[in-house]
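All the exercises in this workshop are built on plain-text protein records. Sequence and backbone structure share a record, each on its own labelled line. The question running through the whole workshop is how a given chain folds. The record below serves as our worked example for the rest of this section.
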Amino acid sequence: MPGKKQSRNGHAFHPIMRKGGVHEKTNKAKRKADKLHTSRKVGEWPSQIVSQAA
């Protein structure tokens, strides 16, 4: 029994609402996380060399 099509949320598909949809980290947040990860790895680096030499 084909009934009436269910209407969709018009606000969710509006062209102006491009930010709607899957929530992801912004590029700025990704960049900051990469920088933090790199700086932590650099901080660990000297201690790894000393422990390997001993």
About this structure: The mean pLDDT is 80. The CA atoms of residues 12 and 21 lie 8 Å apart.
